[in-house]
């Protein structure tokens, strides 16, 4: 059953077999392994290394194996070392000696490099789609909340008023960058390693360009040692996935804060919340917390692979087998988190009245009061001092700037006139801010148009 029994006289120790085997996890890419083999033998036949009849027999045998795995007729069992051995053994069992020609001009080193690339490439595209659905959900919230005022924070202290659309828009930008990071990785990784052999190419006249084109790569990789030893693209992917998780985690943290009894800015839908076994009143934001928590796990895979690769001499080393479980886990984790986060956002209720009244308190219009003075000839530093005194006065009286009478304003600075009220109203504070990227309605509408085009909706 082994691919390499020839030079051995003893059976492999059972524990060694188990320790060495990867079939429990690399069966995840049985489909890619078979597709890669089909492309390889198609090229071998074109080059006259196999006959067309041999190629056809092998291809149909491989296709049957694929169908049987998919329909559950053929179970992938762990007696084989890896998915490559499993497929080859079953091919030989089904089609006889012709099956033994499948591995001509190939090593498991370039084969596994190919399988992992094919798998990752598909997952990367799926990840982009999931991010797209999330972006559409965020766009939808933005479109309906251009006028929903809320406080913007720095240091988690109320700073200046913004809108919900503007706040959500910040995350739209982050996830849009995440998408483009995936695009970049795709472009860089999309070169085919197959045909590199164990490390030094092969003596057969392989047409690597042809195999690459059959598998929709942009071309073959250009150094056979690098081809079998490169895991950079996985490190880049894990970095991009870590960044997605970091963004989801920051957003989750805000959802948790907004959902707290103290804030009550939002209400998470019942379908996306959980209860407590002891406290009947509880409705907990577990999903947001779990997403925040799983971020550590994805960062862990990045650090893990970086550490595995550090110090590995060229070319292939078995250490690299460790790339699989952690990459699979990171991909599955991130996909799950994006889907759940999207559902949670899609069903969330926003308490607009509470958000707006929160924006009114906490002197979020203090900067605008200072700007008012500046527009009336006061130097900004002096204006800053005057408004500081206004704030102190209001804190003592437990009122907001808008509640002060004109006399009270004038007592602190005679520059104030009746138009101060309009100048520091929530509407002015937000909607006068119309530089590109600012929360003002005109500025937001322009950006939303760009986002609409981006999403092609
Ligand atoms: N399971 C191995 C891996 O994931 C496949 C390559 C095995 N190559 C070898 N020379 N032992 O890396």
TrEMBL record:
Gene3D superfamilies on file: Fumarase/aspartase (C-terminal domain), Fumarase/aspartase (Central domain), Fumarase/aspartase (N-terminal domain)
EC number(s) given by UniProt: 4.3.2.1
Cited InterPro entries: Arg_succ_lyase_C (IPR029419), Argininosuccinate_lyase (IPR009049), Fumarase/histidase_N (IPR024083), Fumarate_lyase_CS (IPR020557), Fumarate_lyase_fam (IPR000362), Fumarate_lyase_N (IPR022761), L-Aspartase-like (IPR008948)
Pathway listed: Amino-acid biosynthesis; L-arginine biosynthesis; L-arginine from L-ornithine and carbamoyl phosphate: step 3/3
Top-level lineage group: Bacteria
A Pfam family the protein falls into: Lyase_1
Compartment(s) where it occurs, according to its Swiss-Prot or TrEMBL record: Cytoplasm
GO CC terms, sorted: cytosol
Domain Fumarate lyase N-terminal: start-end pairs: 6-300
Argininosuccinate lyase C-terminal domain location: 363-431
Reaction catalysed by this enzyme: 2-(N(omega)-L-arginino)succinate = fumarate + L-arginine
Biological process, per Gene Ontology: L-arginine biosynthetic process via ornithine
Molecular functions (GO terms): argininosuccinate lyase activity
Keywords associated with the record: Amino-acid biosynthesis, Arginine biosynthesis, Cytoplasm, Lyase
Similarity annotation: Belongs to the lyase 1 family. Argininosuccinate lyase subfamily.
This protein's name: Argininosuccinate lyase
Provenance organism: Anaeromicropila herbilytica
Gene name linked to the record: argH
């Amino acid at each position: 059953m082994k691919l390499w029994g020839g030079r051995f006289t003893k059976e492999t120790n059972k524990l060694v077999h188990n320790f060495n085997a990867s079939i429990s996890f690399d069966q995840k890419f049985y489909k890619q392994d078979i597709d890669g083999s089909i492309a390889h033998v198609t090229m071998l036949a074109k080059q006259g290394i196999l006959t067309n009849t041999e190629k056809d027999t092998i291809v149909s045998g491989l296709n049957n194996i694929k169908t049987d795995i998919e329909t559950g007729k053929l179970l992938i069992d762990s007696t084989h070392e890896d998915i490559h051995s499993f497929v080859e053994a079953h091919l030989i069992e089904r089609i006889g000696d012709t099956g033994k020609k499948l591995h001509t001009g190939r090593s498991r080193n370039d084969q596994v490099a190919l399988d992992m690339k094919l798998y990752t490439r598909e997952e990367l595209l799926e990840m982009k789609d999931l991010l797209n659905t999330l972006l559409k959900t965020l766009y939808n919230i933005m479109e309906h909340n251009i006028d929903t005022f809320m406080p913007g924070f720095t240091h988690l202290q109320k700073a200046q008023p913004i809108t919900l659309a503007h706040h959500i828009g910040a995350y739209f930008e982050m996830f849009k960058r995440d998408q483009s990071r995936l695009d970049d990785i795709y472009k860089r990784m999309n070169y085919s390693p197959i045909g590199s052999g164990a490390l030094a190419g092969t003596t057969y006249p392989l047409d690597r360009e042809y195999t690459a084109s059959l598998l929709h790569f942009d071309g073959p990789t250009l150094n056979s040692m690098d081809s079998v030893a490169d895991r950079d693209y996985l490190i880049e992917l894990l970095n991009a996935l870590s960044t997605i998780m970091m963004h989801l985690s920051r957003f989750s943290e805000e959802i948790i804060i907004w959902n707290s009894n103290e804030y009550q800015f939002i209400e998470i839908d019942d379908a996306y919340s959980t209860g407590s076994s002891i406290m009947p009143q509880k409705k907990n934001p577990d999903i947001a917390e779990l997403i925040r928590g799983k971020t550590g796990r994805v960062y862990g895979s990045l650090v893990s692979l970086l550490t595995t690769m550090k110090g590995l001499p060229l070319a292939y080393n078995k250490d690299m087998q460790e790339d699989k479980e952690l990459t699979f886990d990171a991909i599955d984790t991130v996909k799950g988190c994006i889907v759940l986060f999207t559902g949670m956002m899609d069903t969330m209720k926003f308490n607009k009245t509470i958000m707006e009244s929160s924006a009114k308190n906490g002197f979020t219009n203090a900067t605008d009061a200072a700007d008012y003075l500046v527009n009336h000839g006061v130097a900004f530093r002096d204006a800053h001092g005057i408004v500081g005194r206004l704030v102190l006065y209001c804190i003592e009286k437990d009122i907001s700037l808008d509640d002060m009478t004109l006399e009270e304003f004038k007592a602190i600075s005679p520059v104030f006139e009746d138009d101060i009220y309009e100048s520091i109203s929530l509407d002015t504070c937000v909607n006068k801010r119309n530089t590109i990227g600012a929360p003002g309605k005109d500025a937001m509408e322009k950006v939303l148009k760009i986002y609409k085009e981006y999403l092609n909706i």
